[in-house]
Amino acid sequence: MEEQNIHSAEVQKQMRKVGLKIAFIMALLMSFGLSLTGQLMAEHPPEMPTIAIVIGFLKCFALSFVISFVIGFFVPIPKVNAALARKFHLQPHTPKAHFVESLASNLIYTPLITTAMVCFVYFTMMPEGHKPPFLAMFIFSQVVCLVVAQVLIMVFVPIIMKLVLPKMPPRP
What we know:
Helix content: over 70%
Keywords: Membrane, Transmembrane, Transmembrane helix
Shape: elongated
Structural class: mainly alpha
Organism: Fibrobacter succinogenes (Bacteroides succinogenes)
Number of strands: 0
Order of helices and strands: HHHHH
Distance between the termini: 15 Å
Protein name: DUF2798 domain-containing protein
């Protein structure tokens, strides 16, 4: 019995490590993708030096990464996905299940990340004479980032899972 408890604790420890790896990789992916999207959507004044654009990207990337990793660390996405599968009677590893799971992840991550980045850019980085209306910028950014994030999650989560999961020890 004690050996089984030790093994169970070891499996839990391994699963936590895998979860952290996935959270880290997803934070990198989402942060890079959404920060790049924001930079590509931005209307930079012609007089803005390239270095300022690069620094803006890096600041947004850092902010987004911290938010993404914190979400990935605290939100139990596998449990959310399992609950969704039960609720909607989804078969694991089907396109329908993958779409619903990725949509759930998208709706958890993207609005928070996008809100933080839009507020950060609008209130700290944009020159006063070059600011569009906040609400228009906010809504447009949310819509575009939700679409971009959905594509990123749909495409890259299976790849990330294949990279991370084979490194787990086999179950007895």
